[in-house]
């Protein structure tokens, strides 16, 4: 179902615009953050249906941010998809071990990306 609020945590403006525009074109509402710290605050305040989290952010990493989200009662059940250019097997294993609900690689394949979003949101309805 479209219309859900999705939080995008991404520090690259072009990647942020691509995800935001594609999600909005497909009926989702978005809120954006360029840092993990602000993303954590926005997640608590806005309670999005899904968070798209870049792994390599300035300051706190996406993996560290996921730890904070999972530790807080008000955000622990929000699904989080990792979005990253780190495609090495060890990076993928670290992302999976951290407890992300999904993984999308950059550069983003728009159809695959939308399918992953829909799949994770569908599991949580």
Write the layout of secondary structure elements.
Blueprint: E1 5-9, H1 13-25, E2 29-33, H2 36-46, E3 50-54, H3 62-71, E4 80-84, H4 89-98, E5 102-105, H5 110-123
Parallel strand pairs: 1-2, 1-3, 3-4, 4-5
3D architecture notes:
There is one protein chain. By secondary structure, this protein is α/β, with parallel strands linked by helices. The protein contains five helices and five strands. It has a single domain (5-123), classed as 3-Layer(aba) Sandwich (Rossmann fold). 46% of the residues lie in helices and 19% in strands. It has a five-stranded parallel beta sheet with strand order 2-1-3-4-5, sandwiched between helices. Helix 4 (89-98) links the parallel strand 4 and strand 5. 30% of the residues are buried.
Q: Short description, anyone?
A:
The protein is an alpha/beta fold. The chain has a single domain (5-123), classed as Response regulator (Rossmann fold), CATH 3.40.50.2300. The chain is built from five helices and five strands, in the order E-H-E-H-E-H-E-H-E-H.
């Amino acid at each position: 179902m479209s219309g859900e609020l999705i939080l995008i945590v991404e520090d690259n403006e072009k990647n942020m615009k691509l995800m935001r525009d594609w999600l909005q074109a497909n009926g989702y509402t978005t809120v954006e953050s360029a840092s993990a710290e602000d993303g954590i605050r926005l997640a608590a305040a806005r309670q999005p249906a899904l968070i798209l989290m870049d792994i390599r952010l300035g300051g706190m990493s996406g993996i560290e941010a996921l730890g904070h989200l999972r530790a807080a009662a008000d955000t622990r059940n929000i699904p989080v998809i990792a979005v990253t250019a780190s495609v090495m097997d060890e990076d993928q294993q670290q992302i999976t071990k951290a407890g992300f609900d999904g993984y999308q690689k950059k550069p983003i394949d728009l159809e695959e990306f939308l399918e992953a979003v829909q799949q994770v949101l569908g599991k949580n309805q």
